[in-house]
Request: fold
Amino acid sequence: MQTLYLLVPLAPLAGAIVAGLLCRVISRRLAHCAAIAGVGIAFVASLFIWNDVAAGNTFNGPVYQWLSSGDYTFQVGFLIDSLTVTMMLVVTFVSLMVHIYTIGYMADDPGYNRFFSYISLFTFSMLMLVMSNNFMQLFFGWEAVGLVSYLLIGFWYTRPTAIFANMKAFLVNRVGDFGFILGIGLVLANFGTLDYQPVFDQARSQIGATLNLIPGCDSSAVSLLGVTCILLFIGAMGKSAQVPLHVWLPDSMEGPTPISALIHAATMVTAGIFMVSRMSPLFELSDAALSFVIVIGSITALFMGFLGMIQNDIKRVVAYSTLSQLGYMTVALGASAYSVAIFHLMTHAFFKALLFLAAGSVIIGMHHDQDIRNMGGLRKYMPITWLTSLIGSLALIGTPFFSGFYSKDSIIEAVRLSHVPGAGFAYFSVMTGVFVTAFYSFRMYFLVFHGEERFGKAHGHEARASGDGHGKTAAEEHHGLAPGQKPHETPWVVTLPLVLLAIPSIFIGYATIEPMLFGDFFGKAIFVDGSAHPVMEELARDFHGVFAMAVHALISPVFWLAAAGVAVAWVFYLKRPEIPAAIGAACGPLRSLLENKYYFDEFNERVLAAGARLLGRGLWKGGDAGIIDGLIVGGSVRVVNCIALLARLFQSGHVYQYAFTMIFGVCALLTIWLLPRI
Amino acid sequence: MSGLPLLSLAVWTPIFSGLIVLFFGADRNSPLARKLALFGALAGLFGTLPLYAGFDTATPAMQFVERLPWIRRFDVDYHLGVDGISMLFIILNSFITVIVVLAGWKVIESKVAQYNAAFLIMSGLLNGIFAALDGMLFYIFFEASLIPLYLIIGVWGGPRRVYAAFKFFLFTLMGSLLLLVSLIYLYLDSGSFAILDWQRMPIPLETQKWIFLAFLAAFAVKVPMWPVHTWLPDAHVEAPTGGSIVLAAIALKLGAYGFVRFSLPIAPDASHAFSGLILALSLIAVIYIGFVALAQEDMKKLVAYSSIAHMGFVTLGFFLFSALSVEGALVQMISHGFVAGAMFYCIGVMYDRVHSRQIADYGGVVNTMPKFAAFFMLFAMANAGLPATSGFVGEFMVILSSVKFNLWVGFAAASTMILGAAYTLWMYKRVVFGAVGNHHVAGLSDVTGREFLVLALLAAGVLGMGLYPQAFTEIMHSSVDELLRHVSVSKIQ
Reply:
């Protein structure tokens, strides 16, 4: 079994090395075969491990000792339990789908082999992250997925927007990691180890421990566990794009669409959710941290959903939807419903990867026009894409019996039952979010697949559209369809993953809700303090089987909110298109607030980034050049110079001056010597 | 093997090789000079490898000790020996010497023999610093090693080399004299020039403070610590690529090494008394310099400033007085040797082609130099402290121990996570990414076989240390424990 554990991350790594180091030597075919074989092996091995874990076998042990110092040892090691294996399956399955899809999507790209190398490397990093049994390796994987995300967002490196977006993503994530490493530091300082198990075992003994925020001032004492958890959660906020560290995710759409599906929807961005669930034995002990989590989550869920309603770029609609859904997961974490969060993470991975890949398929069909205002009526031309998109959208908005229904409805119920401070606001957010999600999902769906065919006309939006250009220069890029040209369905390598992802998008919730939420599938992998946060127990009490849950939902307000969202979208964008325009004109300030994404980017660029540059320049010119070099160094040079000038006066080279000075000196000395004696 | 005076070989092999190069490699005979220099550098490197193989990690005692009386009148001995702290630097230095000889292979066209001889001689002298166990011998090596560096900057340097050399001289002069005064004081007090004797000798607190400050004056300039750092960016800008590599990779380590060999064990009580000051200066170096680096327009200056920030972690780690922090600082020193050396080499590779260090003169280098861009990305990420590179290990260890010491100290130290990434990646973006910026970039040719070799060697160091730092720290354990024992025991009687 342990060889199998090693095989899971190492097979994609081998694929990445073959496709990467030899990218100039080997053919495209060999590169994608190597990469797909690596991920395929990892997926099959994960299935075997899942089978083994389901039989009750877990594993926690080191692979090698990375570093020892003083009393501390840090190792690379694996913790294999139901939580890990769930993530492993999700990661390897979605990654495999994306690998296959890439053959079609990147077919014309000069960086084909490089791209395969990156996504395999990503799979390796993500697997190391989820399989870790300690904080150090978690941080390793954490930063490594960040690196690959950076490389992939900037994959088309000649594009200014792409290389701006990737740097932004890395730096914003670093802000999160800054908190994360401080949290890890507190864990090491107070638990003496970074291995999960001993830390979790000792967690209870630290409940009363406090930390003085101002050294030596006892009145500034705060709960140690609370601070630790909040710092760790700041790391999650970066990676899982929670407000205010969400700003990088919409821009990350500059990357090729397959990675938007894999990294920025299904796997990497859920690392924060996974991490908090993994740390449930710590978070459970701090209500302050849980409150913080639930409030941040609900802000993200609601306000990012609003932004999804006005986007016109097909990928950005899905990106804001991802942000909002990540908010839902975070809310579930705050409500102590960790298993629900992981459940939603899993269903979301399937239907959101599906939606992104379908969007990519549409983009191919539309010849790299991403503006949904230029689409319409595509269902005739792209039937598989249309049908799978519909399935994905229905799952996303929580239609009963679809996978998204089971996970999202459980989140809403859990929040309703939660009593953590902030849960009331969270309940309002997730309920409103249901309507918003349904609205923006079906706004996009109707605009793309139904209604009037708006493509093939004069390219009014061409200048603005920044489609996937496959690394070609701007002149070669052709956006959109030429007049008279029709969209076409994409090749089988693109549609096959869509179909394979559509299947779990429908069924996975129905099939797994019972064991995952109410059975003991997660067992000891997730810890919930039942006496303090009885949410899961109450949820289980209200649960009367998967079928009954879906039927019961038909009369619940959640369902009608979603239906209303779809209906409004239908009216606005199919029946009476003049209404949204009128509303837009009527609410000017609100519209500009949304169009400017609440001014987060402006603030970051104009205040934070510009301020940092200004400060750097000031310290350089004022501090280094002005005070240190100018005043101190230059000053001492001037002092030396002055003394030297004086000294030079005496060295004129004229003998009479020397003689005069000598005589004067002798006289002076004699005077001083004789005066007291007279 | 054990019979051979390995440390003497480490010191004198490069020096004699340098003299041979000087003797045989006349101006007309540059190819021979290059080959002789490479042979000498390799001989020096392979001569030091038995130090690693034969090193006993179980003992903190000095190993491979050689001791001969030298100046009997003042009890000065030719006394060499290494422990787990100094041994790694001798190997690093010998490795960097090979890199430097290779780096200057095609680029240096005038006075080839003299250029290579200067590096070889400096390499031997630097090894001498790390191996010296006699205070006076240390001082002689310490000062003598600067002469080749002055020459390298002064002869093969840029247009403002005289200003740079002068500035460096001004900064160093005062400290060196104070160092000499305290060494003589320690000799008069103890009757011995043996550093190990000084470490055992009781000294009253007041005296310790004076000694500590004198050492500080000498070592802080070399590290360099804020605010005596301003010579470094100027020196780097004027130095040729090889000079920058040695300056960053080895010369900056001398000051830090001085702290662990002299300040901490000889004046432990004063070290504790002044630790707050050093921590404050280190954190200023990390944050202030991080911001200054952000504003740089010259790549070499940017990397020079980033070196200062990284060395801030070294002094921070030393003065937190825990095994994790001190070993983290030592790891950071070695890692910085690889990473800063590699960064300066990368800049050199571009400079050789375009003859500019200004960030604004580049843009889109990846289009014409993809292999180079991949290496540069690796080193940039190491500079930003990405896990699995050596740059992460030391920072990680020091940040963790500073959080343990105090959350706010950790907070300040961890800001490098953001600042380091910001200045490094912003530079990388402007230089490497984007569309081809101008006709210079359009005409670039990718790395040659020789450049590829140098980059690959450095990359192996960066990745190897990032993936398995244990290979380095296990050598340090005993010596660091011994050092901390010295620091924890008061010498006041």
